Amino acid sequence: MKGLFQNVRTILRMQSRRPKERLLSLPLVLENQGLQQIIQVPINEFPLYLPMPIFPPPGILVGTSLSLPLSADVNFIHVAGPSFEEVSLRYGGCFVGSQLSFYPGYFARTIAKIAYCAAVYTLGIAPFKGSPIRRVILGEDLSIGHWVGAWTGDPANEAKGLHAMQVRMEDSNVHVILRLFAQFNTPEYHVVLQPTAGYFIQPKKFPWR
User: Fold this and answer.
1) pLDDT value for 207
2) How many Cα atoms occupy the beta-carbon half-sphere of 76 within 13 Å?
């Protein structure tokens, strides 16, 4: 997450444990006629794009194999500063880009962890002590795409505020739909949490949140 959202956290001045160590400039990649260079750009002049991974729906919902690797695209949302096109014109029409460190599995595990915490907050720890999602979060089970993916229904969380999520129940599964950086109209993610085998959650007692 740090590698994926580091520029966003820096420019939007999000909470940090080391505020005195905030960067005053960020690296920008320029490429012209095959020659690449990295320059430092002040944060108030940096083209800030929010990279949001795009996943397929959770495999458990569409019947895909547990062994399939998690695939992902990345959608870049312009949130602050000049656009890449404007910066390109400033530097003579060269290619402009930013370095990004990203592994789909790590990001999906973080999404799963957030969803797990939301479900535990809503229902308590008891239903999920033996849930398969625990081994996924710990990296002991690599079938992350079976449980984590894109939300494909109507928007569940409003596009406002920093982050938003909903916890729902259908049949024997608990579903968490969450949206990071919601105010930028980001995509929603869907995490399916299968309760511990034999544990039954009574829908009438389910505290919707």
Assistant:
1) 46
2) 13
pLDDT in tens, 38-52: 989 999 999 999 999
At 68-116, the pLDDT tens digits run 778 889 999 999 999 999 989 888 878 888 877 788 899 999 999 999 9
Amino acid at 191: V
Q: What is the 3-state secondary structure (H, E, C) of 21-45?
A: HCCCEEEEEEEECCEEEEEEEEHHH
Q: Which residues pair with 189 in a beta bridge?
A: 150, 178
Cβ count within 10 A of residue 174: 26
For residue 175, which of 166, 162, 184, 183 has the smallest C-alpha distance?
166
DSSP string, 145-194: GGTEEE--SS--S-S-SS-EEEEEEETTEEEEEEETTGGG-PPPEEEEEP
As a whole number of angstroms, the longest Cα–Cα distance in the chain is 65
**In whole angstroms, how far apart are CA 58 and each of 64, 91, 108, 122, 186?**
9, 43, 11, 22, 18
- Which of 149, 181, 152, 141 lies closest to 165 in space, CA to CA? 181
Residue in the structure block whose two tokens are 């079938």: 143
Residues 139, 113: Cα–Cα separation, whole Å? 11
